[in-house]
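Quick note —
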Amino acid sequence: MNKKKYFLNANIIDPKNSIEEIGGLIVDEKGKIEAIGKKVNKNNIPSREKYIDLKEKYIFPGLVDMRVFVGEPGYEYKENFKTLSRAALAGGVTSVVTMPNTDPIIDNVSIVDFLKRRGRDKSKINIFPTASMTKNLEGLNMTEFGLLSRKGIIAFTDGIKTIQNTRLMSRIMRSAYDLNCLLIQHAEDYNLSKDGMVHDGIISTKLGLQGIPDLAEKIIIERDLSLLEDFNCRYHISQISSSKSVEIIQYKKEKIDFTTGVSINNLSLNENDIGDFRTFLKLSPPLRTEEDRISLIDAINKDLIEVIVSDHKPEDEESKRLTFSQAATGASGIETLLPLSLELFHNGSIKLNKIISLLTSNPSKILKINKGNLSIGNDADFCIVDLYKPWVVKKEKMTSKSKNTCIEGKKLQGLVTNTFVKGEELFTVS
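Predicted structure written out below.
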């Protein structure tokens, strides 16, 4: 049997339970949280017990990342459950929502069974798989929402694809409402974004690259939110990238209930960072203008955006070191999600408590899972963070199988030093 663990003198932030204070944390023999907060100190733990003095380092709930691509099954050479688990733990992430864009695609019950077994056997973190909204991700026929939900599928999404057919989307929403399922939509009109590689603007013209207009995102959001007024199902916009999208979300929030996510890449970078054809910054949605980036931060502060995601999409280096048109889209980002988010605190853009809520309690609430909090009796899933520790992102030190980070060489402040799942220390900084 495991021994109790005592952590003292920590800055504890747990948005769900409105905890923001210096105190301690006790993990019981079963890996559950026994006590937390300022009442936990040296004076009220047994004198014979050893404790860890965190010297005012921070304790956060284990992060919940709502948009993660794992290569298993079918693309294990990019990332598998084992390597994903290691990368997640290095970034303080203890729960991930995986996308269905695998081979085979997650669109039937038998594949879900296989996926859950693999996730359980090879991963140390909590895996919450999604299934595709349409069979074979073709955007033509719905998957069996009822059967898949009963198998433990947490949400339905076509991942990197968007339902283009309005009639089909209305049917999907009706089923989602009847079955109380969560829909996660990647908002992109294909007719407008076809062959696009970067934001449609000055940079795309300068580089001679086909652009993706922000209107492509806005049109799908407007359509879906108009449908939502009639069907009122659980609906989440996976990630937005532009001020135009913020405007329509602000308008619709007054009328209907839905939630919105944003990639940390779009909060931290803009189209100028692409420079001279930096293919590691070829992302979906694309990096947009500095004005768009500031608008997204403002939207978070106005509670118009509820979730920050890594949009972790591992790609082997060979598929990124190509011409811009040929290079794969996406970046590995799960282990830099928290440090990059903390940059928004350090530069005064967003308060720390709000950042942590967007990474923990908010996604858990949307997903209806009991994670992302430090409630007494819950699994002790948490990370310890040296909030002011400076470090530099180096791909050779990344634990993800694919090293396609879009922030190579970036100086960050805030380092995850330890990560615990069910009270067991599974990561410690070397």
